[in-house]
């Protein structure tokens, strides 16, 4: 335990650990504080079912990690981080026994799409190819720099000449839904359903206006789903290792009770046990905005209008995720393998959505606090690609269904009564497509509800695993509020670097990396990472 340092970082999720490691490498004395016993936040991996079966409780799909600057800047591979990119990335399996598969091989993906529509296969090839042509531009303008406004983004795209040469990127996207984009460019409902499903797994609802703006970027990464070998917690461990090797300190079981403010400046923190830690240069919060401004900061330390906005104006995802974690004696064998054998080798599997209208119906139900009438979870069996996550001969499985945080009049507490019932419904839905997933194949299973998400990780307010709604109203320089969008706060020396900030949740490291740029400018740090 240290009683003084240069920088205190509250929260040891991937953003907190990465920012701490960057600051430590910059010569600063850094302390990262974690409320739980283990670092990582959403990168937790636990034996939820039987001994030896490792379940990624929150973050399972790491789609952007290979493109994130910390991968190279912090030498994560040298610290032992390893990823697998499955050859068959995704599949959609439909009630009529047909299936569509997405491969790391573009030709194979297009051949699968062509079984439904040759025209859509040609369109997908053009969209995917074009998206790869400007993916670095989009990453640079949308993710790995402090946020610009929607108007500035539109102007930037015009300056780069994208509008003139692009078949798919348009200023109209800032007003369009993903559904509109898909209807404009694709014809077959099953093809559109799979592309919309891909967006949903990334946190992008296909019926929300404005999200079409980011959709070409998502399509460009549709074959980049990556699995962290040894469980997602391995990423947390290697980040901690880099922090420690450069002099940083991680303190677990250290709940912050108060951010100390003196003369309008953040000067440290007070822990729940009364321990005081001084911060000579800065304090960084990577937890939720509500805790930071309504619980940790002293009364009167920020303008009253900001406090009121935090209480009333923050936007959270109006939906959450219900999960089933399974220990199994065999992998699923899908009946649709008779149509396309590659479905048995797919990682991220859509079980049943055959049209965007079906997805739209479920979004409406979930937003109104109702469960979808038809259970259509997505499935993943990590052991097919990382045998280390289960004992020999065993398999670790995951089912996930979009769901409301509060169910009807019962609220979030209703999940405590209905979690196992709904888990059985999800398993029955899986069994419709994989008949071998009977009781003999499932050794044990446990539900993990939206209420469980909020209890385990309180910064995921109301089960909001993206830590803020993904919508045009909560994007770029509007996230989480206009007054807090640039990582600084009205309290001098207090910064925000969690998934509440631009761009959003998911394992991108972008909130930490972008906050780093702002901190470096304010403190005059040498930006060594730009030369790595």
Proportion of helical residues: 25-40%
The biggest sheet amounts to: 7 strands, mixed
Going by CATH, what is the homologous superfamily of the domain at 4-45 and 61-80 and 230-313 and 465-531? FAD/NAD(P)-binding domain
CATH fold-level assignment of the domain at 4-45 and 61-80 and 230-313 and 465-531: FAD/NAD(P)-binding domain
Shape: globular
- Going by CATH, the architecture of the domain at 4-45 and 61-80 and 230-313 and 465-531 would be 3-Layer(bba) Sandwich
The radius of gyration over CA amounts to: 23 Å
Number of helices: 16
CATH class of the domain at 4-45 and 61-80 and 230-313 and 465-531: Alpha Beta
Quote the beta fraction.
Answer: 15-25%
Query: Runs with pLDDT <50, length 5+?
Result: none
Number of strands: 18
**Separation, N- and C-terminal Cα atoms:** 32 Å
Would you tell me the overall average pLDDT? 93
Secondary-structure map:
Elements: E1 4-10, H1 14-25, E2 30-33, E3 45-46, E4 55-56, H2 70-73, E5 83-84, E6 88-93, E7 99-103, H3 106-114, H4 118-143, H5 150-159, H6 162-165, H7 178-185, H8 189-201, H9 215-220, E8 227-228, H10 233-245, E9 249-251, E10 256-262, E11 265-271, E12 276-285, H11 289-296, H12 304-312, E13 320-328, E14 346-351, H13 356-367, E15 378-381, E16 395-403, H14 414-433, E17 442-448, H15 450-456, E18 494-496, H16 510-523
Parallel strand pairs: 1-2, 1-12, 2-9, 6-14, 12-18
Antiparallel strand pairs: 3-4, 5-8, 6-7, 10-11, 11-12, 13-16, 13-17, 14-15, 15-16
